Amino acid sequence: MAQIKTKKVILDPHPSLHKQSKIADPKSKEIKELLATMRATLKEWEEGEKRYVSVGLAAPQIDEPWRVVLIRSDFNNYEKREFYALINPEITKYEGAPIQDDESCMSVHGVHAKVPRYPKIKIKALDEEGNEVKFTARGYEAKVLQHEVDHINGLLFLDRALSEDKGGYFKEYDPKTDSMITLTQSEVEKRGIFNR
Ligand SMILES: [Zn+2]
């Protein structure tokens, strides 16, 4: 079997991160190959990454314009590198009061911000075989799913991040001190992180 190719994870402000993705057909050769490429890319990315593990990946993050996401199967055991696929996922219901929590993204290198997400959602999607799946996600999985579904709608967590005056923050990893430093409002504005 031919070696499965990997692709580069693109970074903001790449224009492909800000577009609506297209409806995908899980039975097509193109989407089957895309899923293999996404899994191989995640493996390669994690092997080269010291500080982070990946909890999910959306096709636009490797510059593929499809409504396809991979979600980590087990958030309690990161040794297990397994990801389940959702094709054309839709959030059909949001429940509970949004919780503000720290968030980051493989396509926004090193930056963290505080983002409100719903604690419980209902999802409708197709699985890899093309069967319809419907389920309820809670807590951390719900947060990851909201982040990944945003990607296929051309949104990044930065688009939903709370500004400083609303109790939010922007932090960035500083390799010199190996710690997270809080960015000042003027630094955030200068770099166009928030004013999008
Ligand atoms: Zn992301």
Description of the structure:
- The chain is of the alpha+beta class and 196 residues long.
- It has a domain at 15-104 and 118-156: Peptide Deformylase.
- The protein has 3 helices and 9 strands.
- Bound molecules: zinc ion (ZN).
- Zinc ion is lined by residues 105-107, 147, 151.
- Residues 105-107, 147, 151 line the site of zinc ion (ZN).
**Number of DSSP helices?**
3
| CA distance, first residue to last residue | 44 Å
Instruction: Please give the CATH class of one domain.
Output: Alpha Beta
Give me the strand/helix succession. Answer: HEEEEEEEHEEH
Question: What is the number of beta strands?
Answer: 9
Unreliable spans are: none
Beta content: 25-35%
Ligand kinds: zinc ion
**Derived structural class:** alpha+beta
Per CATH, the architecture of one domain is Alpha-Beta Complex
Radius of gyration: 17 Å
Task: Draw up the topology in text.
Layout: H1 29-47, E1 56-58, E2 68-72, E3 83-95, E4 99-105, E5 108-117, E6 120-126, E7 132-138, H2 139-152, E8 170-174, E9 179-182, H3 185-190
Antiparallel strand pairs: 1-2, 2-3, 3-6, 4-5, 5-8, 6-7, 8-9
The chain binds zinc ion.
Give a brief outline of the structure:
With 196 residues, the protein is α+β, with helices and mostly antiparallel strands. It is built from three helices and nine strands; from the N terminus they run αβββββββαββα.
List keywords for this structure.
alpha+beta, binds zinc ion, Peptide Deformylase, 20% helix, four-stranded antiparallel sheet
